[in-house]
Amino acid sequence: MSDQLYLTFDIGGTTIKYSLIDQQRQLSHGGRCPTEHNQGGHILQQLLKITADYQTQHELSGIGVSTAGIVGAAGQIQYAGPTIPGYQGTPIKAALEKQSGLPVLVVNDVDAALLGEQLAGAAQGKQTVYCVALGTGIGGAYLDHGQLLNGAHATANSLGYTLYDPATKTNYEQRASTLTLDHQLAQLGISVPAAFDRARRSEPPFVTLITDWATEVATGLANIILLFDPEILLIGGAVSQQGDFLLGLLNRALEPLLPPNLCKTELCVTQLADKAQLFGAVAKFYN
Question: Is the pLDDT of residue 2 over 80?
Answer without folding.
Answer: no
